[in-house]
Structure formats: C-alpha cells, structure tokens
Amino acid sequence: MPENPAGLESVGGYVLEAVKQVFAISVVVAAIAGGLVLARAQSRVAREGPDWVRIVTGSLGSNTFKDVRVETVGNVILRGDNSGRSEYTFKARVRARDQREAQELLEDVEVRTSIEGERARITVRSAPGISESSELAVTLPRVVRQVSVVTKGGNVQASDLDGAVEARSAGGRIVVNAVRGSAEIRTGGGSIQVDGVGGALRCSSGGGSIRVQNAGGESWLETAGGEIFVSQAMAPVHAMAQGNIRIEHVAGPVYAGTSGGLIDVRQAQGVVTAESSGGAIQVNAAKGVHCESAGGAIRLRNVAGAMHASTNAGSILAELIPGGRLEDSMLSTRAGDITITIPSNVAVTIEAMNGWPGAGRILSDFPEIRVRGDSRQGGAPVVADGALNGGGPVLHVSAAAGTIYLRKQK
C-alpha cells in the first residue's frame, strides 16, 4: 500500500477542524434564531459544607432588551450595573449521601435565557430535591425599564435599578434598595424591607413585618401577621396590619388600620385617618385627624384642622396647638376620661356633655365655660359650653363614663 503524500495528515486535520467550527457556528446561530441561549459554562458537582453544589453561569448576550423576567427556585440576588453587563450565576444545592447521588439530582438543573424583542427571560428549571437555599445572582444594566422576579420559596434582594421592580416569593424575605422606579413586593409569609424606592410602592406579606426607610411615591402596605414601620414617605401612606403600625414622617395624609395593635403617627403633613379594633392610637402632629378605636386610648398632639376621635373603651387626650387654626371637631368616648389642653390664644367654642348616670363630671379651668347640671340628681347629664377668645370653631365633647377635663396649657 502506498504511503500518504507528505502533508496530507496536516491538511486533513485542518479540514476536520474547519468542519468542527462550521458546525459549532451553525449550532449557535440555530439557538439564537430560536430565542434560546444556553449556559456559558457549567462546573462539576462539588462539596460545600453539608451540601453538594453545582454552578451554572451565563449571559443574556445582548443589551437590546428593556424588560426582564426571572423565574427560579430559591434565593435571588438582583443588581443593576452601570457598565451594561447582563450575566447570571446559579448555584444549585442538594443534600446527598455521596457525589454520585448528588450528580443524579443535579444533572437536570438547567438555566434557560431568551430575548424576544425588548423582553428578556431567565428561567431556572429545577428538579425535586433541589434546596430552597439555592441561589441565583443576576446582574443587569441599571437602565432596564422593568424587572420581574418570581421565586417558589427563597429570599429576594433587588438593588441599584432605575426602572420598576416586581418581586414575588412564596414565603421568603424580600429586600429592595436604591430603586428609582416603582416597586411591587409580595411574599407569602416573609418580612419585607424597603430601604429606598423612588416611585409608588406596594407591599403585601402573609405574615411578616414590613419596614420602609424611604418611599418617594404613594405607598400601600399590608401584612396579615406582622408590624409596619415607615421612616419617611414623600406621598400618602396606606397601612393595614394585624399588629403595630408606626409612621415617623409622611409628606401627605395617612390611612392606617390594625386589628389589635398600636397606631403611632409621629408627623404627617396631611389628615391622619386611623382605625384600631383593639389598640391605642397616637398622633403627634397632623393637619387633621379622624380616629376610631374599639378598645384603646387616643392621644392627639399638635393637630391643626378638624379633630374627629372616638373610642368605645378608652380615654382621649387632646392638646391643641398654640395659635393654631382649629376646625369644627368632635371627641367622644363611652368608657373613659377626656382631657383637652387648650392654649390661651386659641379661639374655640366648647360644647360638652357627660351622661354618666350618677357620676358624670366636667371640670374646667376656664371661667368663660359654664358647667350646668348634676348627674347625681335624677341621672341628668352634665353639660358645659362657652366661647374662648371670642369663640370660633365648635369643639363637641361627649363622654358616657368618666370625667371631662378642660385644662389651660401652662
């Protein structure tokens, strides 16, 4: 048999390599044409503490998208990046007896990405046995218009994004920070922490607490089993909870309701509307209040405008603002004292009645206010009326049990 001509082996190798490259390019073109980009690299299964882990990394490959949707199982860390990068790392975790068993559990883990027009998608296809402590880290261009994250049970962290953020978890904790757009956050039972959102904010938890440090737009906050705390909001706040509600500063009105906790509003540049089924209500400063409690005390301080406060079982304390402009108001309790502190320069007309049979009293520091009647004589109610500083808006005061105190501010 004749020998191969010189150089034929190298020429054949060149041809074979060229065929391989053409085939590889064809696969990539076909994948992109179908809207699917496979993972860039996959590590082998390795041991990490008590778990076996497998890491899958990749990139979206294009920055033409404006909307992104992420669907996974486990924890999610989402970050915006000024350089325009778009990449991900998924660390899948399992508990197994040995590497072989771990390999079998992890071999079906897959990360799929696609881009259709302006919409990009990252989807993690998991398998039974994959731990909820698995983690998907995603870096996106900061300027994306909207990001939607859905996880079946892990925690979510989203930060440094200019657009809107939607984050949902079946029961994990959600943290959002440095988001310039709006945010919609829902968890089946975890806590929610918002360190900074520029637009409108919606938070809902099936059983965790909600903490908001800074919200730029109108906020709707609701939890079925925790507390709500708001440090600063630049627009109206709506808060509904089973536990306590505390609001530090709101540049607008407040609407708060709880079935069994304290409502504490420190400062609102609008009207405070508060309802409690079994707790106290405190308002330190507001431009009007409308408060109702089924079983707790009400304390109002530095309130201008109209005051409407009533409780079935609790005392009411109201301190008027010196020189403030009061509007027609009403304070009422069925079982408790009412104490009103009135500055010497406030113009107001008082109309008070205490109908506690046999024990109702009205005690006044103002000679201008006339107190008449004696509840000990036939159960007739005690009434008081009078005009201070020439009179002004009418303040109606009513008690069914307890004492009404009209005090001078010292």
Overall mean confidence score, pLDDT: 87
Total helical segments: 2
Strand content: over 45%
Q: What does the oligomeric state look like here?
A: single chain
> Overall 3D geometry?
elongated
DSSP summary, beta strand count: 37
Q: Taking Cα atoms only, what radius of gyration do you get, to the nearest Å? A: 33 Å
Most strands sheet:
19 strands, mixed
Helix coverage percent of residues? under 10%
Spans of 5+ residues with little confidence (pLDDT < 50)? 1-42
Alpha-carbon distance between the two ends: 122 Å
Structural class category:
mainly beta
What does this structure look like?
The protein is mostly beta strands and about 400 residues long. Among the domains are: about 110 residues, no CATH class; about 100 residues, no CATH class. About 10% of the residues lie in helices and about 50% in strands. It has a 19-stranded mixed β-sheet that branches. The chain has an 18-stranded mixed β-sheet, with no helix packed on it. A hairpin with a 2-residue loop joins strand 7 and strand 8. It is elongated. The N terminus is likely disordered.
